[in-house]
Design brief:
single chain; alpha/beta; about 40% helix
């Protein structure tokens, strides 16, 4: 394999929508690294076989998206603590025939959010949605020291189950959606995060008054298409500080790029503008 370009890819099903090749391609060009980053669409029943074939072919690793994140963790020889806590991996790194599972979603979420937290790490937060994205957000918040979290979901039992599974160091209280809306109309919160698909293009928006929220509240929506969701529009009208979700997508790629290609990289305005253009967000 000596002299061959370093190779990595993103794996999913379907995968044609992924911006990962554009993101990693930007950094490869910027860094002057002889590397290749591609798209691989695997049938779910062939996932493990195909991953092991990539190891044999000399790939450095892969990023993993739906529906393979749990399977990626299960097949790995080792996993970092954050991936084990979240219960899923979005990055597999190959070395000496072994597979190491990592999860950079929590990292990407926090790197995108924390510049907007001018008052430092809040003591509490409200998280909307209890799906796969909520797992990384709940872990990141606890890892940074947030002590109390309200977790809201349309199906209360799902929020209760996730709270019980992931609580390590924080008190996580499950709420149904109506109770969460009442809470946000009655009590000022330092941080509100939407992790659900509501507000995404083609999905029903979050219509929430946020009556008790104001300039001391940071509202983050991890949805990035559109960049300005109905929730963020309402928050801005209330005077809240808002953070869109595109930065999470960009920042989660940084540790993977370093693992695959050996260079530290940053999210610069040019990269964000490139991805916005690719996705038709501007």
């Amino acid at each position: 394999m000596r002299g061959q370009p370093l190779r990595a890819a993103v794996v999913g099903h379907p995968i044609s929508h992924s911006q990962s090749p554009s993101i990693h391609g930007h950094w490869l060009e910027q860094s002057g690294i002889a590397g290749r980053y591609g798209l691989l669409d695997f049938e779910p029943e062939h996932f493990e076989r195909e991953i092991r074939a990539l190891v044999e072919q000399g790939y450095q690793g892969v990023n993993v998206t739906v529906p393979f994140k749990e399977a990626a963790l299960a097949l790995a020889d080792e996993a970092d603590a954050i991936a084990r806590w979240i219960g899923a991996a979005n990055t597999l790194v190959f070395s000496d025939g072994r597979i190491s599972a990592r999860n950079t979603d929590a990292y990407g979420f926090w790197e995108n959010l924390h510049p907007g937290l001018s008052d430092g790490v809040p003591d509490c937060a409200v998280v909307l949605g209890a799906g796969g994205a909520a797992r990384a957000v709940l872990v990141a918040l606890q890892d940074q020291g947030v002590g109390r979290i309200w977790l809201a979901n349309r199906t209360l039992s799902r929020a209760q189950g996730l709270a019980a599974e992931l609580a390590q160091g924080a008190q996580i209280e499950a709420l149904d959606w109506n109770a969460a809306e009442d809470l946000l109309d009655q009590e000022a919160m330092p941080l509100i995060i939407n992790t659900s698909s509501r507000g995404m293009k083609g999905e029903n928006p979050i219509i929430c008054g946020l009556a008790a929220q104001g300039p001391s509240t940071v509202v983050n929506d991890i949805v990035y298409n559109p960049l300005q969701t109905a929730l963020l529009e309402t928050a801005a009208a209330r005077g809240c500080r808002i953070v869109d979700g595109l930065g999470m997508l960009l920042h989660q790629a940084r540790p993977a790029f370093q693992a695959f290609f050996g260079a530290r990289v940053e999210v610069d305005p040019g990269l964000r503008q490139k991805v916005e253009r690719n996705m038709g967000l501007v």
